């Protein structure tokens, strides 16, 4: 399955790593409906950014999970290849 890195450039003011953890938990609850697997995420609290690594059939499927789970859709979704 294709691998993607989605990038959220502008989180709502005051968003914390704990908030992102909660949103990620919501993704995990529904991801199977779309054939998606959110694998990991990283949070830059100071910069207000989040990066999510996701296996998905399409970028649109990955975005749909975020939209339905919590509404925080990524600004960019990049196809990536895992390194060592």
Number of domains: 1
CATH architecture assignment name: 2-Layer Sandwich
Query: In CATH, what is the homologous superfamily?
Result: ORF SCO4226, nickel-binding ferredoxin-like monomer
Instruction: Report Rg.
Output: 12 Å
Specify the biggest β-sheet: 4 strands, antiparallel
What strand order characterises the main sheet?
2-3-1-4
- Number of helices, counting only DSSP H or I runs of 4 residues or more: 2
CATH topology: Alpha-Beta Plaits
Helix and strand element order? EHEEHE
How far is the first residue's CA from the last residue's CA? 18 Å
Percentage of residues in DSSP E strands: 25-35%
**Estimated helix fraction:** 25-40%
Secondary structure category: alpha+beta
Which CATH C-level class is it? Alpha Beta
- As an assembly, this protein is single chain
Shape: globular
Q: Segments where pLDDT lies below 50 for 5+ residues?
A: none
Chain-averaged pLDDT: 95
Number of strands: 4
Any overview of this molecule?
The protein has a 4-stranded antiparallel beta sheet, covered by helices on one side. Helix 1 (17-30) crosses helix 2. It contains 2 helices and 4 strands. It is globular and about 35 Å long. A hairpin with a 4-residue loop joins strand 2 and strand 3. The chain has helices spanning 17-30, 59-69, and strands at residues 3-8, 37-44, 49-55, 76-80. The chain has a single domain (3-80), classed as ORF SCO4226, nickel-binding ferredoxin-like monomer (Alpha-Beta Plaits, 2-Layer Sandwich). By secondary structure, the protein is of the alpha+beta class. 30% of the residues lie in helices and 31% in strands.
């Amino acid at each position: 399955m294709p691998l993607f890195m989605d990038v959220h450039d502008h989180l709502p003011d005051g968003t914390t790593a704990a908030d992102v953890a909660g949103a990620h938990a919501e993704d995990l609850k529904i991801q199977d409906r779309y054939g998606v697997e959110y694998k990991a995420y990283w949070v830059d609290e100071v910069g207000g950014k989040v990066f999510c690594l996701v296996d998905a059939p399409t970028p649109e499927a990955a975005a749909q999970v975020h939209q339905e789970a919590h509404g925080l859709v990524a600004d960019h979704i990049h196809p990536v290849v895992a390194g060592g």
